[in-house]
Amino acid sequence: MKLRQKFVFLVCISFVLYVSYKILEPEISGQSLQEQEQLEFRHLALKHNLKSQNPVNVENSSTHIKKEDVIQELIQKYRMDLSYPLNESPWRIASKWVTPREIIPESAPELGGILKALITRKIISADIGHKGTQLKMTLVLEGGQKVVFKPKRFERAHVIEGSPYSGEDRHNGEIAAFHLSRILELRRTPVAVGRMIDLNEEIKQIGRIRLLETFFNRDENTCFYGKCLYCHGPETGVCAKGSVLEGTLVLWLPEHYTLKLHKHPWARTYKEGKAAKWETDEDYCFKVTQMDLFREGPRLMDIIDTAVFDFLIGNADRHHYETFEKYNNSMIIMLDNGKSFGNPRVDEISILAPLYQCCSIRRKTWLRLLVLQDGILSEVLEVTLTQDPLNNIDPILTTLHLQALDRRLKIILDHVQQCFHKYGPNKVLIQNR
Ligand SMILES: Nc1ncnc2c1ncn2[C@@H]1O[C@H](COP(=O)(O)OP(=O)(O)OP(=O)(O)O)[C@@H](O)[C@H]1O
Ligand SMILES: [Mn+2]
Question: Where is the FAM20 C-terminal domain (predicted)?
């Protein structure tokens, strides 16, 4: 070929390649998106078609996705296979999962196998609970794994009245909170699963004396009152049915991640008639953002994520929070969710104060909430919870609590929307903190 012909030939080939690339471009760039982002894109498209609360700048809205398909996709994603085979110790796997920013990874098929180990492994030692105000036990399971056992204190339909932080811990709340944190893609909550424990068969032989000293019987049932700030003897104890006690096991975090306790800037005073600074100061969030800990880095956005999470579950008791001591960028560990799902009829709006006072939220969190609106959240969570062993005895959450989640989700989105009106989405949605 002559040089000129070669040149024309090359130009033609380049043109064809360019045109093909342009045609295929959406697919190609779509493929390079993370699986998570793809899902988000598709769900945004779904929302757009449903014409409900419209996210800003929706792209790809030509895709038609049915709400039912999204639900099925999410149910599939969060499904746990309890017979999933593990090729090393369940405790090793779970320990290796933990990073300064998450407790379990997005894709964790081994979770089913780990839950299975939690509910079947022999209890090799039992002691009073570690710190805190609530009755619990610290157990060690075969293979050396420490877990917290939070006993059942209420029937599922029991409604806690009174102050937003009233009542003893709800063991089922810990389970629901763990799965909710996965569905929100926050994953900062330790693994939790329901287990029935035979106090006579599984605890009495191996328990520490200081725990067993608190055991007693009431009407043929085995009971114990443990040691904690609010543990005052048999009147504050809990009783098994016969000797079998229902409760939640919470997997202990790896010991090499030492915890650091911080006072929560939006803590309550816990004194009736005495308001905290954040309750009266219009400019409170601005003042928080001037503090070293919150000026930069992820901490303030973590506080807001946690507020979203706590508002959904109805936990008004996060007076302190814990982080991993050795890491500046540590997540806020969403630990201790026992004070949740107390009253399905009350939406305790003050829990959301960090969000509406700062008028900001992580873009990623907000996108997730959009995906889950219009009843998707409750449906996905309800099905996910059926895989917990306790759900066979009694659904982990009553319908009223599931409905409350959808209602509260909408309230959160309404608040974000109000912030958009005030400051514009670009100021409100935070991308890189
Ligand atoms: N899964 C866990 N991994 C590591 N440490 C934990 C775990 N669960 C609890 N702890 C530690 O034990 C402390 C007490 O646990 P928790 O907060 O659940 O008890 P509580 O009685 O509800 O406490 P409070 O009355 O302060 O709310 C926590 O602050 C934390 O330091
Ligand atoms: Mn607590």
Answer: 215-428
In the reported structure, the alpha carbon of residue 197 is separated from the centroid of ligand 2 by a whole-number distance in angstroms of 21
Distance 336 CA to ligand 1 centre (A): 6
Place of tokens 């200081």: 210
The residue among 98, 191, 180, 99 whose CA lies nearest residue 141 is: 191
366 and 429 Cβ atoms separated by less than 8 Å: yes
Interatomic CA distance for residues 395 and 385, integer angstroms: 8
- pLDDT the model gives residue 59: 43
Query: Which ligand 1 atom sits nearest the alpha carbon of residue 147?
Result: 1
Would you say 322 is a known binding-site residue?
A: yes
Atom nearest to 131 CA in ligand 1: 14
Q: What is the pLDDT of residue 48?
A: 44
Q: Are strands 429-430 and 361-362 parallel, antiparallel or unpaired?
A: parallel
What are the tens digits of pLDDT across the range 145-174? 999 999 999 999 999 999 999 999 999 999
Mutate to test the pocket of ligand 1, among 175, 336, 337 (most ligand atoms within 8 A of CB): 336
Is 219 among the catalytic positions?
A: no
Taking CA atoms, 413 is separated from 188, 347, 360, 416, in Å, by: 21, 14, 12, 5
Task: State mean pLDDT over 380-385.
Answer: 98
Q: Which residues line ligand 1 (CB under 6 A)?
A: 130-134, 148, 169, 190, 228, 250-253, 259, 322, 335-336, 338
Ligand 1, atom nearest to 228 Cα: 21
Partnered with residue 215 across adjacent β-strands are 224
User: pLDDT tens for residues 303-356?
Assistant: 999 999 999 999 999 999 999 999 999 999 999 999 999 999 999 999 999 999
Residues 6 or more apart whose CB falls under 8 angstroms from that of 61 comprise: 44, 45, 48, 49
Residue 195 in tokens: 């287990």
CA 64 to chain centre: 30
Per-residue pLDDT tens digits for 102-132: 999 999 999 999 999 999 999 999 999 999 9
Residues 6+ positions from 220 with CB-CB distance below 8 Å: 242
Tell whether the model's pLDDT for residue 366 goes beyond 70: yes
Domain boundaries, the chain: 90-251, 259-430
ipTM over 0.90: yes
Q: What share of the chain is helix, strand, coil (3-state, %, to 5)?
A: 45, 15, 40
Q: Where are the beta strands (DSSP E) in 184-308?
A: 192-198, 215-218, 221-224, 238-239, 244-251, 259-263
Lowest mean pLDDT among 6-15, 109-118, 372-381, 390-399: 6-15
